[in-house]
Structure prediction request, 145 residues.
Amino acid sequence: MVEQARATRDANHVPAEITLHQGSRVLELSYANGSTVRLPCEFLRVYSPSAEVRGHGPGQEVLQRGKRDVGVRAVEPVGNYAVRLVFTDGHDSGIFSWDYLHAIGRDQDALWRQYLQRLEREGGSRDPEAAVKPHQHTVRFYKPS
Prediction:
């Protein structure tokens, strides 16, 4: 799903400043060359580089549903090469390298279109209440007399 977001290692991909706009739920990356990239928290959540989202190999990606209202609670540095984002839905296992953030920022429009198309194909929704599928059956382990 993130094929277009392949990155090359480049010192120019290191942001000079990172600003979390919690009201608008946007992470803003400002670079030394004056460019700025604004990444919505929902976009970051659905493209988290974690195994929970990407799987452990090609074709194992897990479609993220119901993430429209997700925000970022914290941005934590990881060495000098990445940040760990702590999302308001509890997800916190993705390590976002500078190269990865640069690549998904560069390819944001195409990646977002791919995500929306996949949601539509698979009957998913960005809305939290619609993302929870009703139980297909009930299993009883105990029935009081």
About this structure: Residues 1-8, 134-145 have pLDDT under 50 and may be disordered. Residues 108-121 form the longest helix (14 residues). The chain has five helices and six strands. Residues 3-131 form a domain with the NE0471 N-terminal domain-like fold (CATH 3.30.2020.30).
